[in-house]
Amino acid sequence: MKTSEFNYDLDPSKIAQSPFSPRDHSKLLYVDRKTEEKKDLKFFQILDLLWPDDVLVFNETKVIKARLKWYALLKDWRKKEVEIFLLSQKSLNLWECAVFPGERLKPGKIVKFDMESNCETILEWSIKEITYSWRIIEFNIWWSEFLDEIDKIWSIPLPPYIESSNQTNEQYNTVLAKHEWSAAAPTAWLHFTQDLLDKLVARWVKIEKILLHIWLWTFKTITAENLEDHEIHHEYIEISPETAMNLNSHKKSGKNIIAVWTTVVRTLETMTDENWVINSWKMDTNIFIYPGYSFKFTTSMITNFHLPQSSLLMLVSAFYDRKKMLGLYEYAKANDYRFFSFWDAMFLR
Predict the structure, then answer these.
(1) Would you tell me which CATH number, out of the four given (2.60.40.3210, 2.40.10.240, 1.10.357.10, 3.40.605.10), belongs to the domain 67-153?
(2) How many CB atoms are located within 10 Å of the residue 14 CB?
(3) CA distances from 169 to 62, 64, 89, 158, 262 (A)
(4) InterPro entries recorded for this chain (predicted)?
(5) Which residues are CB-contacts of 245 (< 8 A; sequence separation ≥ 6)?
(6) Which of 48, 94, 104, 149 would suit a FRET pair with 287, their CA atoms being 20 to 30 Å apart?
(7) Residue 236 and residue 214: Cα distance in Å, rounded?
(8) pTM as predicted
(9) Domain boundaries of the chain, sorted by first residue
């Protein structure tokens, strides 16, 4: 299958630059996959779409401040602006990072910061090795100090299509975000408020929680001409024994398993074995879901409007139908839905 088959045009004015307030008043496009019925709603009206014993599965990951801009001192004492993104932690002080520009940052290079801030710790790091286009970097300070510095001088790694840098941790985290180390939020989750969750529970909607840490390559456009040639990224996933037991019980009794965003879909589908049973594991996943994939555990999905030629668009196209999905995107554009991270939502039932 060609990557170009998942392309579409989008006017930049359709890209949401800030979250809706209140969160649950964003738009919701409801789609019945069997009848192809569509409804234009507000997100809080999902109360009328969910049934008693429906199961919502959320991702508990929490976004950290994983982006840093600073000036590197060159040999002639000139300063060069450099940007670093934490991707994944390899050991206590060892991180896989994206660094821009990275031409001069070869293994063995030691980089010192010239920070224009109140940072008391001199942050220094050395390049250990290069993996693909990333750098393995060792920082020179203790773990507790590193966490303090992240909070002081690092910022939220917003996607490249978000022009404003004024978003807070609270705006870019979900209401039940718990486990740190994501560089991006499971954005379909952002539409839920605590009040809405309380109302859903009062109506006997079940809530389960899994974990997938999202990293920056989530935003990457696939450049391979053929999907089969694309090597998808790895992300850490985890399902507790209690949650696995609950999910298997829900599935066995025929309940509707509703994944809230694509991260939950990837986790559920990775953890489901050949007997259609969810396992409790802590592992990395590089599952690549695109049209032709047979879903094992997910029966419904709450998602958003994804980037052209992204693995996320390919996943939702596998869940519904590529042509029908792109048709929904054209419908959303014509009806003033907002796209991407602070976007409006879609409920595929």
Answers:
(1) 2.40.10.240
(2) 15
(3) 9, 8, 20, 10, 21
(4) QueA, QueA_dom1, QueA_dom2, QueA_sf
(5) none
(6) 94
(7) 8
(8) 0.85
(9) 3-63+167-348, 67-153
Bridge partners, residue 257, by sequence: 55
Q: Strands across the sheet with 257-260, in order?
A: 38-42, 27-31, 345-348, 300-304, 257-260, 55-59, 206-212, 235-238, 282-285
Q: How far apart (Å, rounded) are the C-alpha atoms in residues 5 and 305?
A: 16
* 126 — pLDDT class (breaks 50, 70, 90): low
Distances (CA, A) of 36 to 33, 276, 298, 320, 324: 5, 27, 19, 10, 9
Whose structure tokens read 């001192």?
A: 73
Question: What beta strand segments (E) does the chain contain?
Answer: 27-31, 38-42, 55-59, 61-63, 67-73, 79-89, 94-100, 110-112, 124-131, 134-139, 179-182, 206-212, 235-238, 257-260, 282-285, 300-304, 345-348
How confident is the model over 165-187, as a mean pLDDT?
62
The domain 3-63+167-348 belongs to what CATH superfamily? QueA-like (3.40.1780.10)
The pairing of strands 345-348 and 282-285 is unpaired
- Cα 2 from chain centroid (whole Å): 24
Q: Which of 188-202, 304-318, 333-347 has the highest mean pLDDT?
A: 304-318
Close Cβ partners of 24 (under 8 Å, ≥ 6 residues apart): 42, 43, 44, 191, 192, 193, 195, 196
The CA–CA distances, whole Å, from 204 to 22, 55, 67 equal 24, 9, 40
pLDDT more than 70, % of the chain: 72
- pLDDT at residue 25 in the model: 92
